[in-house]
Design brief:
18 strands, about 350 residues, 9 helices, alpha/beta, seven-stranded mixed beta sheet
């Protein structure tokens, strides 16, 4: 079968032929209906190098996946061939306390996982192929009625990651508050929708691209602000001088972290999701009093159940451009160039 693979660090992915996977005991092979292209894959291709992570190339890209059960390994119960499923992407050991709670992102025994600190498309063959081996049936969630694999795929990361970040700050998003979403791409456009669907906060969206700001407005943002030197003053003015209760940074560059620190209100949250590698000096007087600065990583399996529910009910609706497997590399080229709106999803059967 065809697969889009990263063959070494600091290289572009290549479409090659690989063997079809066969499920071992407890494993499942999924026929991919959709595999989202995440900006993290651009970081994998261009920024990462050997030694940074306990895994590396070669592997098939694609860590946000959904499709249909294709083949069941011995002993797998509760799933049927042909059933539509989403793949929960972060794979832990399955047995530690965090994994038993479904928080496999924070597995405490990663050496016992299929790939330590990784998953399908992250050190292990992912979904940019016709078929994908999922090493444990617990990583599959049946799709709720009303959700197809193409829409479900981005929800497993571009939806789940902002959902986890927003959920963590729910208590600070009461009526009368403001959330700022920086970077309205794959994750950010869903972040805007998730804040609107699950809280009563006002949403201010920030991006450098005009198209992204238009998308933010379509997604329900109350205000769309161009990223740049005026942004802090504009956001402060829009909040009566108070600033934002929660800032979600889906870029993570020096400039966006400085913007976040410039607009966050005392007692607020500044959450860094983007991994552009920027830094922010933190000391007692460098940020407003009692601001919490945090990173978040992906999300838990129970949270994915909640995100899929929001998707099935149309409360969160990814804006998707589809690409065939032959065009998959092009999805990344377009993302790099800033030409995509929302998420690119590779559809192998197209
Ligand atoms: P994307 O390319 O789809 O979107 C990024 C958006 O940020 C674009 O709209 C771009 O125009 C905008 N942007 C770039 N520079 C900006 C600036 N200075 N000010 C305002 N906006 C700016 O990317 P994505 O797939 O949504 O991923 C976003 C980031 O989140 C990436 O760094 C990715 O690696 C990271 N990520 C983190 C996690 C996690 O668990 N922490 C999970 C998934 C992705
Ligand atoms: Zn991702
Ligand atoms: Zn574990």
């Amino acid at each position: 079968m065809k697969a889009l693979r990263l063959l070494e660090w600091k290289s572009e992915p290549v479409l090659t032929e690989v063997d079809e996977p066969v499920p071992g005991p407890g494993q499942v092979v999924v026929r991919i209906g959709g595999a989202g292209a995440c900006h993290s894959d651009l970081h994998l291709m261009h920024d990462f190098e050997g030694g940074l992570l306990p895994w590396g190339p070669p592997f098939t890209l694609g860590h946000e996946n959904a499709g249909w059960v294709h083949a069941l390994g011995d002993g797998v119960t509760g799933l049927e061939v042909g059933q539509p499923v989403a793949v929960y992407g972060p794979w832990g050991c399955g047995a530690c306390e965090r994994c038993r709670l479904g928080i496999e992102t924070l597995c405490e025994n990663p050496a016992a996982a299929a790939v330590p600190m990784g998953g399908g498309g992250l050190g292990f063959d992912g979904g940019m192929a016709e078929l994908m081996l999922v090493p444990a049936a617990r990583q599959l969630l049946p799709l709720p009625e009303g959700l197809d694999p193409v829409s479900a795929a981005p929800l497993t990361d571009a939806g789940l990651t902002p959902y986890h970040a927003v959920r963590r700050s729910w208590s600070k998003l009461a009526p009368g508050t403001t959330a700022v979403v920086i970077g309205v791409g794959g994750l950010g456009h869903l972040a805007v929708q998730i804040v609107k669907a699950t809280t009563a906060a006002r949403v201010v969206a920030v991006d450098t691209r005009k198209d992204a700001l238009t998308l933010a407005t379509h997604c329900g943002a109350d205000l769309a602000v161009a990223s740049g030197p005026e942004a802090v003053a504009e956001i402060r003015a829009a909040t009566g001088g108070r600033g934002a209760d929660v800032v979600l940074d889906f870029v993570g560059a020096d400039a966006t972290l400085a913007l976040g620190a410039g607009v966050v209100r005392p007692l607020g949250d500044l959450t860094i999701v983007g991994i552009a590698g920027g830094t922010l000096p933190v000391s007692f007087f460098s940020v407003p009093y009692e601001v919490s600065i945090q990173t978040t990583y992906w999300g838990s399996r129970p949270e994915l159940v909640e995100v899929l529910d929001l998707g099935a009910r149309g409360l969160v609706h990814p804006k998707i451009t589809t690409f065939s497997l032959d065009e998959a590399a092009d999805a990344y080229t377009q993302m790099q160039a800033g030409h995509l709106e929302g998420r690119a999803v590779v559809v192998p059967g197209r």
